[in-house]
Design goal:
This protein has 443 residues and is α+β, with helices and mostly antiparallel strands. The protein contains 19 helices and 13 strands. The protein has a six-stranded mixed beta sheet. A three-stranded antiparallel beta sheet has the order 11-8-12. Strand 5 and strand 6 form a beta hairpin. The longest helix has 17 residues. This is Extracellular solute-binding protein. Pfam families: SBP_bac_1.
Length: 443
């Protein structure tokens, strides 16, 4: 259920020189420059009276706690700006946003992921931020260029990465130590990974399967394709043919036959991606697939020590990937101010210290450097270490997924589940997927 909060309280005016000058000039100063060179100190837009911005995001209670703290920090600096916040879990989030969009009642500041960015941009629900980027009111100069590109649709900046993440293998270190088996490592091939998973199943005498079956996971397929020089999408079309998809499904059919993966029923239980259902958390497998920034949440759900490695295949198949974006509603009455809040959330050192790595690595390289010593939670540090290790090896960023991507994701999962359950063979499932995916992308 959505969680609504009453407006965050505005701080009393700061008696410091900046506030005194603002009072003398009769206008608020909303400077939100970063710390120690994270962003340049720039005056935010001048508003003539109190402003309340609505904010909506998805995530858990920890994300809500940290985000509210950062928004209060912004209000501390800018007492005339307050926030009305709503947050909820990922389930049903986009249904709620769609209802708001239909009524023209979208919050001023919204969190999107790459599955919806293109659709919201082309439907002109989110604001084109390119002008703010051009004159550095929204300063993206300390973000990796690939991460900036991954927020662009049709050459326009429509979203700014709230954080950066990577597709990863999360594995049970405690179990592997007990079985005296090596940990999976970044750079191992898909064939090597499946062979490792078979060893785990044998060593545990079948009590624990080696790995989750990712045959229906678009992230895994996308990286497998890129590792062979391919792509998931080419513009508004699929970037692969039926033969490639059949080869992918066959890889995991062989893995299942050698018991590297668990039963179809267990895999389907985890297919929704909810952290509490991850098979590495429930103890059904030694490894699962997740986003690297999810490691702290997964770690809180188990007593076992969890480790992290990049998803199999060459690291160059990965790219500077936004875990999610901050975007502005095109119909906001305060576009300049919303852009300034996004600038604060993504480029301010103190804000970065509060947020930590809950959404992933700070998008700003300068902020990452600034907060590095302040991150003490072991799981967050392991996630950050993976991001650092991958940084110099990432490949070029593709465009964000096209409209129709959520439907394509669902169709891939349906095809994989029909194969795993023995209801359809790989060729028939692939043919059906290709036809339906083409229709979804053309719509």
């Amino acid at each position: 259920m959505p969680v609504a909060r009453s407006p965050l309280p505005r701080a009393e005016a700061d008696p410091g020189r900046r506030r005194v000058l603002a009072a003398m000039l009769g206008a608020p100063v909303l400077a939100t420059g970063g710390l120690t060179g994270c962003t340049e100190g720039q005056a935010a837009p001048v508003e003539t009276g109190p402003v309340e911005l609505s904010v909506f995001w998805y995530g858990g209670a920890k994300r809500a706690e940290l985000t509210e703290r950062v928004l209060r920090l912004y209000t501390d600096r800018n007492p005339r700006v307050g926030f009305r916040i709503t947050w909820q879990g990922a389930g049903g989030y986009y249904d709620r946003l769609a209802t708001q969009a239909a009524g023209g009642n979208v919050p001023d500041l919204i969190q999107l992921d790459d599955s919806m960015l293109t659709e919201y941009a082309r439907r002109e629900i989110v604001l084109d931020l390119s002008g703010y980027v051009a004159d550095h009111r929204l300063d993206l100069r300390t973000l990796p260029p690939g991460l900036v590109r991954y927020g662009q649709v049709d050459g326009r900046t429509v979203g700014v990465a709230a954080a950066q993440t990577a597709a990863a293998v999360v594995y049970d270190r405690t179990l592997l130590r007990r079985l005296r088996l090596p940990e999976p490592n970044t750079g191992m091939s898909w064939a090597e990974y499946v062979a490792w998973a078979r060893r785990v199943t044998r060593a545990s005498e079948g009590r624990v399967a080696g790995t989750m079956d990712p045959s229906g996971d678009y992230r895994a397929l996308w990286l497998w394709l890129r590792g062979q020089g391919g792509e998931f999408y080419r513009g508004r079309q699929l970037g692969f043919d039926a033969d490639a998809l059949i080869e992918w499904f066959d890889l995991w059919r062989r893995a299942r036959s050698s018991r590297a993966t668990p039963s179809a029923a267990l895999v389907e239980q985890a297919d929704g991606g909810e952290p509490i259902q991850q098979l590495v958390v429930t103890g059904a497998t030694a490894a699962s697939f997740a986003w690297s920034h999810q490691l702290p949440e997964l770690q809180r759900l188990t007593d076992a020590e969890l480790g992290l490695a990049a998803m199999p295949g060459p690291p160059e198949a990965q790219w500077h990937r936004a875990s999610m974006y901050w975007t502005a509603f095109r119909g906001t009455r305060h576009p300049d101010l919303v852009a300034d809040v996004i600038n604060f959330l993504t480029g301010n050192g103190e804000a970065g210290s509060v947020l930590g790595h809950e959404r992933g690595l700070s998008p700003s390289l300068a902020v990452r450097s600034y907060v590095e010593g302040s991150i003490t939670e072991p799981a967050q540090r392991r996630a950050a270490a993976l991001g650092t290790a991958l940084a110099a090896r990432l490949g070029p960023a593709p465009s964000p997924p096209p409209q129709g991507h959520p439907r394509v994701r669902a169709l891939l999962l349906e095809a994989a589940e029909s194969i795993r359950g023995g209801r359809t063979g790989p060729r028939a499932a692939t043919a059906r997927f290709m036809a339906q995916a083409d229709a979804a992308l053309a719509g």
